Amino acid sequence: MNTRSASPAEAFPPAGADAAAAEPRRLVWDAPVRLFHWLMVLCFAGAWLTAESEPWRLLHVTLGYTMAGLVAFRLLWGLVGTRHARFSRFVRGPAAVLGYLRSLALGRPEHHVGHNPAGALAIVALIGLAIATTAAGWATYNEFGGDWLEELHEGAATAMLALVGLHVGAVLLSSVLHGENLVGAMFTGRKSAPPQEAIRTAWRSVAALMLVAVLGFWAWQWHSAPAAEGGPAATAEGRPQAAGGHDAGRRGKHRSHDD
Question: Rounded to an integer, what distance in angstroms lies between the CA atom of residue 19 and that of residue 11?
Answer without folding.
Answer: 10
